Task: inverse folding
């Protein structure tokens, strides 16, 4: 018999270890304990935490029952998200969008992706829209006026415009935002590639370090925002020096505040290139205020 | 006795160097069971791997392991193993020993094709005929003239010309034949075997193909060092509860990968020594387009086109791979270098790679120190301590540690966190000589991500709430708890390495340290133990200080320097260490309690303090009219004091009323002691050894009833005497029975008593003694 802890408040169950995936708990922006069951889910949490339109989110909110070939099964969405506008969304992270529902009521995932998912600690999920669980979730969401959003750990190879458009949902750079405006099919596909990857992921994991309010100094923050008021982009090194000279604060303190502002999207830069190296931020990166 | 080439081993001492791969043996001296020695085990030279010999004389596929001792010692039934260099010799020996079997027959060269044997016969025949011809000619020459000089080459040419008839060959060929004849010792089978092509039974795979197959087996088949368990019902193997990938699935993966890469794979021959694992990862990742890989010239030039091995070959290879106990590491290191092995099995590297600044990733783990200590009082009770350490992945600096008597639990992890978060001053924490300069500890702060193993305690609400509440509502960093995948110890390799380092030092330095795993060594260590808890604490502390300031081979500098460099002049943000914060590191009770008129109840005790008496500080009823419930934290070592929290905010401490002393303090009682006392009380109560309240009440009620009845009887008798005939009526009315044994005398006694009392009261010269004597007699 396995001993299991009770889940955090509001969760219907504990996440269980899945292959070689690492799991854990984080505290979200509202002080709620949120579980994640794979690194892909953790990537989504980074996005939700930064998104200013998200007021709160929780993990494993409820069990949704559905019939699959006459058998009663249960599906638990990974997260529930409450937006500032009052919308409620159920989010689920799957591994691949290419799976096909075949036989025995279970998703047959291509062998290579399955194995890769196991090895890399990604959650191997179910993806096809023809799946019984998916229709059950969509039906439930439609009934409640909610939205169901599915994310894929494995990126879909979308056209460049669409890919860029997808990022408008979670703007991370001005360049991406510009390209996003050009994307016509953005709304349809944007949720499919919303998980940060590679350089952006590395940057976010490092920027997350500066999330707490203790890293913010209001005087420094005001000075920095004022300098960037006219929509101009300033290299990080230069901005650092200017703010330090205006406020008379030591550089480490100024740096902390600027990185805190970057995490909270009060400032923005191109996160698609690696910005952190040996603990220091790239001095040549251009910083600007979001639109 | 065995011949020079065949031997029954009766004396184990002289057999060790006799056995060698390629030999045959019968463990029971029976022709029905014969094995072929394939190889010695590299890990354990006393173990040999052997293949069974089929009745046809060819080798089977069943591999078995034998201890050398088994090969040269008789079994329980006294049967002595027989061993020989060839199968024929073994069979002859077995036959001479009287073992007759119908199975295996002497069939030398059974696995060699007939053509090769015929050709070997031909070689032997030619060489022997020619040599005989040469010898004959030499004798003839000597017979003719003893002093004549015999010339071998003309004689050879003559023999080749005249003695071979139709099989005549040139001299060059003859020398070739003679060479083979000598090499095979004139043995037909050996010569025939030597005629096989040089690539016989050799793999035809290219280096790139071999790397490709090995990589997939290692990554997806489950790994050589995986722990398997067998389901007795289904017979299926599992990797500690998880299904293993089947060979067919692995082969499918290989096929899909080659389809995706266009049959391209990294060629170790082109990699100049070390295979680039990043390229391998990209080739195996379905997320990375091949065009991206090929677009990089540096990577593209490492690739070569390979062909997928056949399914049959793959299965055969996999079988061989599986039957190499403990050799996976050796095989991979010998083929592709240590880096490839570490990349595959030492996943901790991920943390190290991702960490870009101190405190970003911190790994924690527990370790049972390999040294016994003794208790302070008796100095005789030997016990080992658990060490809990937190280490920073970026700088490898130790953030904090704790030593605990109990096995890993919630408190030990929280205590280590408590030690890790605030700055440490070694001069205040450990004993040192006056004037001794201690190295600074350096590293401290709130970890952003704390990686722990899957211990039950690490999933506790107490730790989760601590991780949340330490952030003080988001003002400070909160701790993200990450649990490493279960049963994959290598994810914690970063800290395991530190433990290994400490273990080595402890073994070298300390009295009472355990030198080996032998039970005897444990007993010796326990006997020699003399150090106390604080000694080990000081020693471990000093070892950590040394570690912090010693150059680390992987980062090229000391952890302390790396830490300082990584902090870039910043200081970690930590909360002030006040009473409320201190209590966050106590263990949280998994539940809540209301405050009532008796205070707060927990562990079968009532707690109270002025803090919770203040309704402004700790209101009892909420705005919804319901009782407010409070959480609390406690220490197992002392449950007489609890810290009460409301929504993560410390309200105050409460003390157990029962253990409160006159001066307001409480005597410390551990949870264990209290639970034991309660359990003991319950057992005593069950066996009737202690008075219980119900019994007391029942006793009092019964006594009261009796006394009440006596009182009524006394009053009735008195009244009867005073009023005459009314007494009987009153008796009946009051239901007093006077017939019960002895009690019918009560009215007489009462009358006498009343008279005595009256007499005494009337005559004041009576003393109490006189009255009593008068009454008695």
Result:
């Amino acid at each position: 018999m396995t001993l299991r802890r009770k889940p955090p408040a509001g969760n219907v169950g504990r996440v269980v270890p899945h292959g070689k995936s690492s799991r854990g708990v984080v505290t979200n922006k509202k002080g709620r304990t949120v579980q994640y069951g794979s690194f892909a889910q953790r990537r989504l949490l980074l996005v939700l935490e930064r998104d200013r339109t998200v007021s709160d989110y929780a993990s494993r909110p409820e069990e949704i029952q559905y019939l699959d070939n006459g058998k009663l099964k249960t599906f638990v969405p990974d997260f529930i998200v409450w937006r500032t506008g009052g919308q409620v969304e159920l989010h689920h992270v799957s591994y691949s969008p290419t799976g096909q529902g075949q036989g025995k009521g279970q998703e047959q995932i291509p062998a290579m992706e399955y194995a890769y998912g196991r090895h890399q600690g990604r959650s191997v999920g179910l993806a096809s829209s023809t799946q019984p669980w998916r229709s059950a979730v969509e039906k439930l969401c439609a009934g409640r006026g909610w939205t169901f959003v599915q994310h894929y750990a494995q990126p879909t190879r979308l056209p460049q415009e669409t890919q860029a458009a997808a990022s408008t949902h979670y703007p991370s750079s001005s360049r991406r935002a510009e390209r996003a405006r050009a994307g016509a099919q953005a709304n349809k596909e944007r949720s499919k590639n919303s998980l940060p990857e590679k350089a952006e992921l590395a940057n976010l994991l490092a920027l997350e370090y500066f999330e707490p309010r203790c890293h913010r100094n209001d005087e420094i923050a005001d000075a920095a925002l004022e300098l960037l008021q006219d929509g101009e982009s300033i290299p990080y090194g230069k901005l650092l020096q200017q703010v330090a000279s205006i406020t008379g604060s030591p550089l480490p303190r100024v740096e902390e505040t600027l990185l805190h502002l970057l995490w909270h999207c009060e400032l923005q830069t191109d996160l698609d290139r690696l910005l952190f190296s040996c603990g220091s931020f790239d001095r040549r990166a251009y910083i600007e205020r979001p639109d | 006795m065995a011949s020079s080439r065949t031997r029954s081993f009766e004396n184990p001492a002289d057999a060790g160097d006799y056995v060698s791969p390629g030999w045959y043996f019968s463990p029971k001296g029976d022709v029905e069971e014969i094995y072929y020695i394939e190889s010695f085990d590299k890990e354990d030279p006393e173990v040999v791997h052997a293949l069974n010999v089929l009745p046809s004389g060819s080798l089977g596929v069943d591999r078995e392991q034998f201890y050398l001792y088994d090969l040269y010692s008789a079994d329980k039934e006294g049967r002595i193993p027989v061993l020989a260099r060839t199968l024929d010799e073994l069979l002859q020996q077995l036959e001479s020993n009287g073992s007759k079997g119908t199975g295996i027959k002497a069939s030398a060269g059974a696995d060699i094709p007939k053509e090769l044997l015929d050709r070997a016969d031909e070689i032997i025949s030619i060489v022997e005929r020619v040599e005989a011809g040469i010898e004959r000619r030499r004798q003839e020459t000597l017979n003719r003239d003893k002093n004549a000089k015999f010339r071998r080459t003309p004689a050879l040419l003559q023999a080749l010309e005249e003695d071979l008839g139709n099989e005549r060959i040139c001299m060059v060929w003859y020398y070739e034949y003679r060479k083979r004849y000598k090499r095979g010792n004139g043995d037909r089978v050996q010569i025939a075997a030597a005629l096989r092509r040089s690539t016989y039974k050799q793999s035809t795979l290219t280096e790139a193909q071999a790397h490709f197959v090995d990589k997939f087996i290692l990554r997806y088949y489950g790994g050589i060092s995986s722990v398997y368990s067998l389901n007795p019902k289904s017979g299926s193997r599992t990797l500690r509860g998880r299904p293993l990938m089947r060979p067919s699935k692995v082969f499918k993966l290989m096929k899909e990968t080659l389809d995706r890469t266009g049959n391209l794979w990294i060629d170790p021959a082109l990699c100049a020594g070390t295979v680039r694992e990043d390229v391998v990862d990209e080739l195996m990742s379905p997320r990375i387009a091949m065009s991206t890989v090929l677009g990089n010239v540096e990577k593209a030039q490492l690739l070569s086109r390979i062909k997928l091995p056949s399914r049959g070959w793959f299965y055969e290879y996999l079988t061989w791979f599986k039957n190499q106990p403990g050799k996976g590491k050796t095989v991979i290191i010998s083929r592709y270098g240590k880096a490839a092995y570490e990349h595959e099995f030492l996943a901790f590297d991920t943390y190290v790679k991702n960490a870009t600044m101190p405190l970003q990733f911190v790994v924690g783990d527990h370790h049972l120190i390999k040294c016994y200590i003794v208790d302070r009082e008796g100095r005789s009770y030997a016990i080992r301590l658990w060490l809990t350490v937190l280490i920073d992945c970026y700088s490898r600096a130790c953030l904090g540690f704790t030593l605990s008597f109990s096995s890993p639990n919630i408190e030990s992890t929280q205590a280590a966190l408590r030690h890790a978060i605030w700055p440490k001053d070694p001069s205040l924490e450990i004993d040192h000589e006056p004037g001794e300069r201690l190295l600074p500890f350096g590293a401290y702060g709130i970890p952003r991500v704390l990686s722990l193993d899957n211990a039950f305690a690490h999933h506790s609400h107490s730790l989760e709430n601590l991780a949340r509440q330490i952030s003080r509502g988001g003002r400070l960093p909160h701790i993200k708890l990450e649990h490493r995948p279960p049963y994959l110890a290598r994810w914690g390799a970063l800290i395991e390495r530190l433990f290994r380092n400490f273990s080595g030092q402890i073994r070298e330095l300390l009295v009472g340290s355990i030198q080996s795993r032998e039970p005897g060594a444990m007993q010796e260590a326990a006997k020699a133990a003399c150090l106390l808890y604080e000694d080990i604490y000081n020693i471990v502390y000093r070892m950590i200080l040394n570690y912090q300031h010693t150059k680390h081979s992987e980062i090229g500098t000391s952890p302390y320097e790396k830490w300082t460099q990584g902090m870039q002049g910043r200081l970690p943000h930590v909360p002030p260490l006040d009473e409320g914060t201190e209590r966050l590191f106590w263990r949280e009770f998994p539940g809540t309690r209301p405050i009532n008129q008796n205070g707060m109840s927990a562990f079968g005790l009532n707690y109270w303090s002025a803090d919770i008496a203040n309704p402004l500080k700790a209101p009892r009823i909420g705005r919804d009219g319901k009782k407010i419930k409070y959480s609390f934290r406690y220490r197992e070592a002392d449950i007489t004091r609890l810290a009460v929290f409301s929504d993560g905010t410390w309200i105050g401490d409460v003390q157990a009323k029962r253990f409160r002393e006159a001066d307001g303090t409480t005597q410390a009682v551990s949870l264990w002691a209290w639970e034991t006392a309660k359990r003991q009380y319950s057992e005593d109560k069950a066996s009737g050894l202690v008075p219980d309240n119900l019994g007391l009440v029942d006793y009092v009620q019964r006594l009261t009833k009796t006394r009440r009845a006596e009182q009524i009887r006394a009053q009735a008798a008195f009244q009867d005497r005073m009023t005459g005939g009314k007494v009987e009526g009153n008796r009946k009315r009051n239901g007093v029975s006077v017939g019960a044994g002895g009690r019918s005398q009560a009215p007489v006694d009462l009358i006498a008593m009343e008279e005595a009392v009256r007499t005494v009261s009337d005559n004041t010269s009576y003393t109490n003694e006189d009255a009593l004597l008068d009454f008695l007699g």
